[in-house]
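<instruction>
Derive structure tokens from the sequence

<record> Sequence and structure tokens follow
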Amino acid sequence: MKSQHVADILLLRGPVSLSHLFAGTFLHEGDKAIDATCGNGYDTLALAKLTGSSGHVYGFDIQEQAIRETSRRLAEAGLAGRVTLLQIGHEKMEQLVRSPVKAVLFNLGYLPGSDHMIMTRPDTTRIAMNHSLKLLEPGGIVLITVYPGHDGGTDEQHAVDDWAAGLDPRKYHSWRMGQMNVISDAPYCVLVQKAA
């Protein structure tokens, strides 16, 4: 039996690692993707690696701190040229991204280490989720990490769940996934695939 270095083991702790696993399954060299909430840049960086040198990523965030940190992380990895960063709300994505994309990632809530009063909101999130479906290629996916356990999180949770549950099953495959051995209001992942 081959031993494996701990750093090489994929640990599915929490919904972000699960969303990265799905993104890695669906995204390939040359694809286009959107990070609807750049935050500290980890999702943006993962998407830039997956779409490769011939692909492209569009990253949205309303906070200058998030855009700055994401830009720094991409530059350190030598991947800044693969990403267009936009300091604007994700509800504007349809106006700014013209070509079809293979994946859209949302990591909702607030930016860790920043003002917790600045967070994603159900009204703009719902608009952005609808835009993401219009931009998706057939077979493409929307991945949403939902955080119900903070002020305002429950309202957004209901907005995401109602939106995903209300999609036409002939046009979209909608899934909700989360760890079972965690607290009841732990974050979870919603995946929506556009039917081919």
In short: The radius of gyration is 16 Å. Residues 11 and 130 are 31 Å apart (CA to CA). The mean pLDDT is 91.
